């Protein structure tokens, strides 16, 4: 039953991830075609700035909530919850006030001197910091249906409002105001929902010591991870300008879409589930879940890499503009491969959390971030945006090697190597088939995608990559 619960959680989150991922595909054409590469580049920098700021200001507390809340009584959680919320609000508000008063440095560096954008971003940072705490609390109690509904509704609300404002002529301010309004509304809604679950109790900030002692050591690692993810856009903006960020960002976003979609599902569900099993000393179940996670993640991400390599440019041209597709189509395949590395890292890093060795994540990502930053500074001025993509892959390769090395010593896994070989073979056959067929019907991108999916899964089933036993088990979980 415990494994079934985990798989059901994965299914719920998977459906919500599919629905939210579709919004990115819906929004991207509207923004790129109405704002151009320059405007889209500015919007990308807004997202980067908010993400980096929130990552720093939350002080590792979301990780601590996921790890510690499941093992505590409600009466303890009440005090801890309000202490954390008030603490994060004060920290983020202080930072936002400083950014609002002194916006020039950031505005001149990456926003082309647009001070007003920086000041609105400062407000967004506050509400986004609270959103993270509220949503993480829901996840910690494995209320995945509630989490999924809220996540999907808020995402579609943002996209719908952003599209409306852009089409009404608000330009870059359309998505910025949409983000501010939807995240602000979400914070208010989530606070009232959680206040019913946890009736107010006077905060005791001494209780934060336990959470900060677990979360802060992992913070530099998380920040370094984010630096690997976003420093390329900052450095592209500094050396090449917002327009080249606008070339790079759509390809980066699309390239990461499928691998990060599935690794995101795993990240949301795995730690709360595995923590419960690990505390009960059910190590066999922990290993079983992680081994299955490796198999099913690669089952999706490997053929995605092959498919994107073949039809990436037409997809980019369809979803953005001919100019962006021409400048960035080579980025797609490189970034999809980086996304596969992220997924592998997400699975194997669970052993670090279970062993409470979070400082290791710091060391690993500091190494990865250092390589990434140095590579970007050297390669971007020399070979442009493709240098940023290459550096991203190199950084992830380093971190994945370090994480797998730790896992093999502390909680050794035995991924199904034969199944992985079959996945690769089926992907290659799919790729060859698409290439041959594309010589005759290249312009029909959707046909090639659907045909590729059919060929891949038919081949995989035929060679035993997915067995009848596994299919029957998944059917029983409905």
Give the total of domains. 2
Strand content: under 5%
Whole-number mean pLDDT: 84
Helix percentage? over 70%
Query: What are the low-pLDDT stretches, counting only 5+ consecutive residues below 50?
Result: 472-478
> What's the total helix number?
18
The SSE string, one letter per element, is HHHHHHHHHHHHHHHHHH
Computed Rg? 22 Å
> How many strand elements?
0
Secondary-structure content class: mainly alpha
Global shape: globular
Report the span from N to C terminus. Answer: 13 Å
Main β-sheet description: none
Describe it.
- Helices cover 87% and strands 0% of the residues.
- It has 18 helices and no strands.
- It has helices at residues 2-57, 61-68, 74-101, 104-110, 115-140, 144-170, 173-197, 208-215, 219-239, 242-279, 283-319, 322-348, 350-354, 359-383, 385-410, 417-441, 445-462, 468-476.
- Helix 9 (219-239) runs parallel beside helix 14 (359-383).
- It is globular.
Summary of the model, kept short:
With 478 residues, the chain is an all-alpha fold. The chain has helices spanning 2-57, 61-68, 74-101, 104-110, 115-140, 144-170, 173-197, 208-215, 219-239, 242-279, 283-319, 322-348, 350-354, 359-383, 385-410, 417-441, 445-462, 468-476.
Any descriptors?
478 residues, mainly alpha
């Amino acid at each position: 039953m415990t494994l079934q619960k985990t798989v059901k959680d994965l299914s719920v989150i998977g459906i919500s991830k599919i629905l939210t991922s579709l919004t990115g595909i819906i929004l991207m054409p509207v923004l790129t075609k109405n704002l151009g590469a320059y405007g889209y580049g500015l919007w990308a920098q807004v997202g980067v700035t908010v993400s980096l700021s929130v990552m720093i200001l939350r002080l590792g507390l979301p990780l601590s909530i996921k790890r510690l809340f499941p093992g505590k009584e409600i009466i303890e959680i009440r005090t801890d919850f309000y202490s954390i919320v008030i603490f994060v609000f004060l920290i983020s508000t202080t930072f936002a006030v400083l950014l609002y008063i002194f916006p020039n440095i950031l505005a001149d560096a990456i926003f082309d001197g647009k001070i007003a954008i920086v000041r609105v971003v400062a407000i967004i940072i506050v509400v986004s910091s609270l959103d993270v705490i509220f949503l993480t609390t829901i996840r910690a109690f494995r209320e995945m249906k509630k989490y999924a509904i809220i996540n999907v509704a808020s995402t579609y609300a943002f996209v719908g409002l952003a599209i409306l404002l852009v089409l009404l002529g608000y330009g870059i301010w359309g998505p910025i105001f949409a983000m501010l309004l939807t995240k602000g509304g979400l914070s208010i809604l989530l606070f009232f929902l959680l206040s019913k679950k946890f009736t107010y109790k006077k905060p005791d900030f001494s209780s934060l010591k336990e959470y900060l002692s677990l979360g802060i050591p992992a913070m530099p690692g998380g920040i370094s991870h984010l630096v690997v993810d976003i420093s390329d856009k900052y450095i592209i903006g500094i050396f090449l300008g917002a327009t080249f960020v606008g070339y790079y960002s759509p390809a980066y976003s699309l390239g990461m879409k499928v691998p990060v979609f599935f690794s995101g599902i795993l990240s949301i569900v795995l730690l709360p589930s595995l923590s419960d099993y690990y505390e009960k000393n059910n190590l066999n179940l922990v290993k079983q879940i992680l081994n299955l996670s490796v198999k099913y993640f690669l089952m999706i991400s490997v053929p995605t890499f092959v498919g994107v390599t073949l039809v990436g440019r037409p997809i980019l041209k369809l979803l953005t503009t001919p100019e962006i597709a021409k400048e960035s189509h080579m980025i797609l395949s490189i970034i999809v491969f980086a996304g596969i590395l992220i997924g592998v890292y997400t699975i194997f890093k669970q052993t670090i959390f279970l062993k409470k060795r979070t400082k290791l994540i710091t060391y690993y990502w500091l190494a990865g971030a250092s390589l990434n930053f140095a590579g970007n500074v050297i390669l971007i001025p020399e070979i442009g945006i493709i240098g940023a993509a290459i550096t991203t892959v190199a950084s992830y390769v380093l971190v994945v090697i370090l994480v797998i090395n730790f896992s093999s010593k502390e909680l050794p896994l035995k991924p199904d190597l034969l199944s992985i070989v079959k996945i690769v073979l089926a992907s290659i056959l799919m790729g060859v088939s698409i290439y041959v067929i594309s010589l005759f019907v290249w312009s029909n991108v959707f046909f090639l995608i659907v045909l590729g999916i059919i060929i891949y899964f038919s081949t995989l089933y035929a060679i035993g990559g997915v067995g009848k036993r596994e299919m029957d088990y998944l059917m029983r979980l409905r």
